[in-house]
């Protein structure tokens, strides 16, 4: 059994049936679960989900109301395993950020990597593998790379 953290873009596409990636993401998640793999979420991906879901469509958001977004987030919380925030996540992130000299938006994705390290999760499922730094012990995988 492999443990996967689902990146924000995976969660967004899994709830946006109008997205061109909806079927790929939905099929991949179903395949992982039916193959006895575990899929995890954490507060950061849900916060990022909220940001994009409530942002207007004209600026690359979904244009959902806070109520619609709340309902989607509650469904995600009920559907996937939850990774708690722990004190060591900041220290892991800070070490990674300084070691890899990370700046700007990549800082958010690096924090996701700190979360998976803190919880011994081995894989991150994402539509944007290039957003992540190569770190020993973490496999960044696109849904196209999973046989579904």
Automatic annotation (TrEMBL):
A Pfam family of this chain: PIN
Domain of life: Bacteria
InterPro entries xref list: PIN-like_dom_sf (IPR029060), PIN_dom (IPR002716)
Annotated coiled-coil segments of the chain: none
PIN domain residues: 4-134
Name of the molecule in the record: PIN domain-containing protein
Annotated source species: Cyanomargarita calcarea GSE-NOS-MK-12-04C
């Amino acid at each position: 059994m492999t443990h996967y953290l689902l990146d924000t873009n995976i969660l967004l596409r899994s709830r946006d049936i109008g997205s061109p990636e909806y079927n790929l993401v939905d099929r991949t998640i179903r395949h992982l679960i039916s193959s006895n793999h575990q899929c995890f979420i954490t507060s950061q991906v849900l916060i990022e989900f909220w940001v994009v879901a409530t942002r207007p469509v004209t600026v690359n958001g979904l244009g959902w109301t806070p109520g619609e977004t709340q309902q989607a987030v509650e469904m995600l919380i009920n559907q996937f395993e939850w990774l708690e925030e722990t004190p060591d996540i900041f220290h892991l992130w800070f070490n990674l950020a300084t070691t890899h000299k990370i700046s700007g938006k990549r800082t958010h994705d690096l924090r996701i990597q700190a979360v998976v390290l803190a919880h011994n999760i081995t894989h991150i499922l994402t539509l944007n593998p290039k957003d992540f730094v190569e770190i020993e012990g973490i496999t960044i995988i696109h849904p196209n790379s999973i046989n579904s």
